[in-house]
Amino acid sequence: MSDCVFCRIIAGELPSSVVHEDERTIAFMDINPASHGHALVIPKTHSRDLLEVGPDDLAACTSAAQMVATRAVERLGADGVNLLNCCGVDAWQTVFHFHIHVVPRYRDDPERDRLKLPWIPEAGDPESVAAAAAALRG
């Protein structure tokens, strides 16, 4: 898709700092990083989001994200890694080509880790949780 920034990166029309590439995926550095080593993993075949990506491309992206995450821990000294996918405008998706953020985390190091998640876990209403579970089954 000529108007998709990630498709243009795949085509070599836009610059990127590629850290991994295989038959199905490409991983490159995020230009607006949340932390030191923040990378994106995308399928080479365009799909809008998590709901459209094919199962083989999803599996390939997950495997590539795991490899990049492992490198972040081993080579950058990350204390942990968040994998994040945003699906839809209301879930903060801004580029409409499926992608997984690989965000290395650094304990007590605000210079290398600026990610602040907005969600603070707290107990849910048991009836609401049960109703959602029932709707999601089968």
From TrEMBL:
InterPro entries: HINT, Histidine_triad_HIT, HIT-like, HIT-like_sf. GO terms for biological process: nucleotide metabolic process. It comes from the Bacteria. A motif (Histidine triad motif) lies at residues 97-101. This is Histidine triad (HIT) family protein. It comes from Nocardioides daedukensis. Residues 5-112 form the HIT domain. GO terms for molecular function: catalytic activity. The active site is at H99. Pfam families: HIT (PF01230).
